[in-house]
Amino acid sequence: MASDVAAGPPRPLWDLPTRIVHWSLVVLLLVSWLSAGENMQIHRWSGYAIVGLLVFRLWWGVAGGSTARFTHFLKGPGATLAYMRTLGARRPSDGPGHNPLGAWSVLAMLAVMLVQVGLGLFASDLDGLESGPLSHLVSFDASRVAAELHETVFRVLQALVALHIAAIVFYWAWKRQNLVGAMITGKRPFQGEALHPAALWRLLVGLALAVLVAWAIAKGLRF
């Protein structure tokens, strides 16, 4: 039976910023879900934190460690379809980073999260008492539409997360690949080139961008 062991000893795969963003999003999405309609102050602050994380992840996808970059793991339709035809095969780790199908699922989740949090920034409740920080930039009717879409898009996000978890279970049970462990330790046995970390200045720029954007949105773009 194929397993991670066949690919050799664990090697560096995910850098620390990528792992922190991943698990922080897991926690904050749960917080946002549970606080919606219950504690809107926590819901808002959770949303601002998610905005910052998404800004950082987009920057890190361009300037981060090698395996975190979009150009490293996003493949075209041909490569994705070819991978899907071999999806049921039990074999060693496919290589460093995401496989072609998993890469597009990650991009889809990031895109839906951006839409989800973006709608929340403009949303308003029926009484106009609980409003997003940018709701003053649109009409009340538009803010109500944003609120309704905010709820709808969250259902889409839930479905994508469920598929993501199902894929993790499939890889663990069938392919004997521990994807969760790799996202915790940053290491996994695989074939191919190992992680090339990004320079410290790239991390600092990403952190500055994330904090600046989240702060500006929390202020309602009022300076």
TrEMBL record:
GO MF annotations in UniProt: electron transfer activity; heme binding
Bilayer topology annotation: Multi-pass membrane protein
Keywords: Cell membrane, Membrane, Transmembrane, Transmembrane helix
Presence of the UniProt keyword Transcription in the record: no
Predominant subcellular localization, coarse grouping: membrane
Coiled-coil residue windows: none
Record-given protein name: Cytochrome b
Organism: Phenylobacterium haematophilum
